[in-house]
Amino acid sequence: EYMREHQYSLLNKIRMVDGQDGINYFNSYVPVFIERNVLQGVRDTMHQVFWDTFREEMMGDEPNYTRLISIIEEVKTMLYCCVPSRLDIHQEIDEHIDIQLIVQMINNDAFDYEVIREFCMYIVNKIKSFQGEYMDEDLEGWRSNLNEYIDTGMPYHEYFTYFFSQVMERIEIILQDMKEAKEDPLYQALLERRREIEEQNQN
């Protein structure tokens, strides 16, 4: 019961501080002695609160697009992190996810379903190009759902919530896979061998 009250206290704080500030607060505040399953439960609830709030802000005749723009900016940063040294791909991402253009289109009521489809499919394709092949089948099922929801006219607040929550989760998996691969002894051995070959070529 105490832990449940503690979770509610944390979630109230997250609601107040919003977005990344809430996540930072949560990460710094959770005590180190908390059990792993309880910690994961709080994180899951925190994520649910974030997306519920986002959905509510996008509803109605005058949706608030501020959080949507912030999420798009964060997605761009996460995509950069998948290929940190590929500035050419960063530039390509900038060209296809142009924040200023998106804001203009929203303000002029030009961010319609077909524009949204093209925008979302670009991100889906980038995720596929970065992820491991073991995730491809699941991604194609996700892609089919996204196209079907566009075709059937799913409300924007539901569509964006579904899309971006999945985007964040999938990119996080990619980044975790990259981290684990770099820590693998075989990867370290191959990296060391490449350094040796480069040094020999320089000599």
Structural overview:
- The protein has helices spanning 2-17, 19-29, 36-58, 66-82, 87-96, 99-107, 113-130, 136-151, 156-183, 185-202.
- The chain has 203 residues and is mainly α.
- It is elongated.
Question: Which key phrases capture this entry?
Answer:
disordered N terminus, 203 residues, mainly alpha
Quick synopsis:
The protein is mostly helical and 203 residues long. The protein has helices at residues 2-17, 19-29, 36-58, 66-82, 87-96, 99-107, 113-130, 136-151, 156-183, 185-202.
The average pLDDT is 80
Shape: elongated
Q: Can you give the helix content as a percent range?
A: over 70%
Largest sheet, strands/sense/barrel: none
> What string, H for helix and E for strand, traces the elements in order?
HHHHHHHHHH
SSE-based structural type:
mainly alpha
Q: What proportion of the residues form beta strands (DSSP E)?
A: under 5%
Put simply, the count of helices is 10
Tally of extended strands? 0
Low-confidence stretches: 1-20, 25-36
Distance, first to last CA: 67 Å
Rg, alpha carbons = 20 Å
